[in-house]
Task: inverse folding
């Protein structure tokens, strides 16, 4: 077993689980300092399923095609504000047109809120702007360099030490 951040070997009989940036990962002792060490997860108990249909339901296999192909542009907040002001609309006017509260428009324009896809499409249509851009798929296999050939976060990105 390898550290999910740097790729160093982790003992299989006693792996360290740490919560780093909101994700629980198996890490080495050195990388565990980057987050908060978690207790081992409880062992699952056998639970008898009440609904047989649920038991026989096919499991969904996720693939690269399930990943989003569009991404919100980096400066979406200033783009929304600029487009709204060019139409000489107040935040209240825009809120009424897309059926959202003024506080939502304010938080989007100040960058305190990232709109979901549905809200982004409403803004694009009302303001006649483009907020979603196509995302190119990156072949992560080019980053594999660990001893076992597995992908780790450390292979893909540079680790910023505190």
Result:
């Amino acid at each position: 077993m390898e550290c999910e951040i740097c790729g160093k070997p982790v003992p299989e009989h006693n792996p360290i689980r740490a919560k780093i940036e909101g994700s629980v990962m198996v890490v080495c002792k050195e990388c565990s300092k980057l987050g908060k060490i978690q207790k081992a997860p409880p062992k699952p108990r056998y639970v008898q399923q009440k609904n047989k249909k649920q038991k026989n339901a096919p499991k969904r296999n996720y693939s690269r095609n399930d990943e989003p192909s569009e991404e919100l542009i980096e400066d979406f907040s200033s783009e929304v504000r600029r487009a709204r002001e060019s139409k000489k609309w107040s935040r209240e006017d825009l809120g009424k047109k897309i059926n959202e509260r003024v506080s939502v428009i304010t938080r989007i324009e100040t960058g305190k809120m990232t709109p979901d896809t549905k809200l982004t499409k409403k803004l694009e249509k009302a303001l006649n702007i483009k907020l979603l851009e196509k995302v190119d798929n990156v072949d992560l296999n080019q980053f594999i360099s660990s001893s076992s050939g597995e992908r780790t976060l450390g292979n893909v990105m540079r680790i910023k030490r505190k």
Residues 76-86 form the longest helix (11 residues). The CA atoms of residues 20 and 35 lie 4 Å apart. The radius of gyration is 23 Å. The chain has a mean pLDDT of 79.
